[in-house]
Design a protein that fits this description.
Length: about 80
């Protein structure tokens, strides 16, 4: 698999972060806006359990490339 085709998902149970490596322009908006979650030098580099879902969604909405997106998980209620 080509590195640009990599697509990974990370979830905190409430929201799932989708990362598409090939779209990333390394603007670092994610790291600047939510350093508790986004650690580009570590694996896994996204730790969604370290922040609120609201802050994660706000951060992802600032991603200029579209490499980071999210979806809300279905609640079981």
């Amino acid at each position: 698999m080509d590195a640009k085709d990599i697509k990974k998902e990370y979830t905190n149970g409430e929201v799932t972060i989708v990362w598409q490596a090939g779209k990333c322009t390394h603007s670092a908006n994610c790291v600047k806006n939510n350093p508790d979650v986004f650690h580009p030098k570590e694996k896994p580099w996204i730790l969604p359990e370290n922040s609120t879902s609201e802050k994660i969604m706000e951060t992802i909405n600032k991603c200029p490339s579209g490499a980071l997106t999210f979806y809300k998980n279905q609640s079981e209620s």
